[in-house]
Amino acid sequence: MGAPLADQPLADQPPADQPPAADSGAPEQATQAPAGQGEKTPITSLAGQGRAQVMQAISQATARLAESGVVSAHSDARQLAEFVLGQKLYLLSQAPQDFFDRYEQVITRRAGREPLQLITGRMYFRYLELLSQPGVFIVRPETEVVAGAAIEAASALAAPLVVDLCTGSGAIACALASEVPGCRVWAVELDPQAAALARANALKNQANVNVIEADATGPLTELAEIEGQVDVVVTNPPYVPAGLIEDSETARYDPPLALFGGGVAGLEVPLKLIKRAYSLLRPGGVLVMEHDPSQVEPLVKAAKAAGFSQGECHRDLTGRQRYLQAVK
Q1: Which of 46, 73, 79, 249 could form a disulfide with 5 if both were Cys (CB 3.0 to 4.6 A apart)?
Q2: 174 closest CA partner among 25, 317, 15
C-alpha cells in the first residue's frame, strides 16, 4: 500500500486499465505549503449566487491551490465545489446562500494539503465509489491496474475463489466481487479500523466480500478450510522501503502500518506474503502483488524459491514496474 498519494478520478471516469482520463485529486509529488499559504486570497461572496459567480469562485480557488503546490488544482477546486453544492456543476442554476463560506472552508483545508479524499469522505476506484476516513490508507489509481490483473485472472474461471491480503479499505476486494460474476472473495486486514471500513465499503457497493480481521502473514486459521484451493490471491501490501516517502500528504495522513514493508528495502511483509499466497493457492492459481519498482528482482527470486512455476513483474500506466504476477 505504499505508492505516493495520487490523483483520484471523478465518479464517471474509467478505471486505470482503461484509457487515462483528466487529472484530479491529490498530487503524486507534493510539497508542503509555506505557513499561512492556505489562508491567502479568501474566496469572497460575489454579487449573486448564480453559476457565473460559482465558476469565478472556482477560478479563485484554483489559483490558491496551485500556489500551495497542489498539482491538480483545477480538478480539486471543481470537485470540492460539487461536494459543497451536493450536485454536478452542469446541473447548477443557483448556489445555496452559504455556498461561498463553506467553499472557503474546504479550499483552506485542501490548500493546507489535507487530502481531497479525507475532505469529501469518498474516493473512487475503477467503477466504485468508496468511503474514505482518516487513519485508513487512501487507495491509489495505479492500484487499479493491479486489481485489473486479478480480475482478468479470476474472470477466466467459473465462480472463482479469491483472497485479498492486506485489503485496507477493501477497494480491490470490492472491485473483484463487483466485476467478476459469481466471485467468492475473502479479504484479510490486520488493522481494526481499516477492516471496519472494508466491511462498510462492501455493504455500500453490495459486494459479496467476507472481511477477516487478522494478520495476513500469520497462520490465518480462519482460512484453513480453503487452504490450497484458492484461484487468485491479490495483495497491495505495505512495501515502502524505510524512510522513502515521496510526498508530505502521504507522510502526514496515511498510516505507517499500511506503508512500510519492514526492513531497509521494505521487503519483510511482501516476502512473507509470497509464502502465504503459495499455501493458499491451488496448482495453477495466480498471485498478483503490488510492489515498489526497486523490488522486482528479489520478489521474482522469492516467488521461484517459494515454488511458483512462473513469475514476472509488470508495468503500470506510467511505465514503472508495479506488480508481480506468479503462477503456482
Answers
A1: 249
A2: 15
At 137, is the secondary structure helix, strand, or coil? coil
Give the alpha-carbon dihedral of 196, 202, 205, 206, to 10 degrees. -130
> Residue 88 corresponds to which amino acid?
K
Instruction: Give the Cα separation of 34 and 51 in Å (integer).
Output: 32
| Distance between first and last Cα of the chain | 24
Mean pLDDT computed over 3-17: 43
* CA gap 13, 292 in Å, rounded: 26
| Residues 229 and 160: beta-carbon distance below 8 Å | no
Contact between 222 and 187 under an 8 Å Cβ cutoff? The reply is no
Q: What is the DSSP string of 283-311?
A: EEEEEEEE--GGGHHHHHHHHHHHT-SEE
Closest to 128 measured CA to CA, from 139, 116, 136: 139
**What is the SS3 assignment for 230?**
strand
Instruction: Say if strands 281-290 and 230-235 run parallel, antiparallel, or are unpaired.
Output: parallel
Round to whole Å and give the CA distance between 189 and 200.
Answer: 14
Phi and psi (nearest 5°) for 97? -60, -35
Record the pTM.
0.84
Task: Single out the residue of 115, 124, 117, 118 nearest to residue 12, CA to CA.
Answer: 124
Cell of 293: 519498482
Q: Which of 216, 219, 225, 221 is nearest to 198 (CA)?
A: 216
pLDDT tens column, 99-113: 999 999 999 999 999
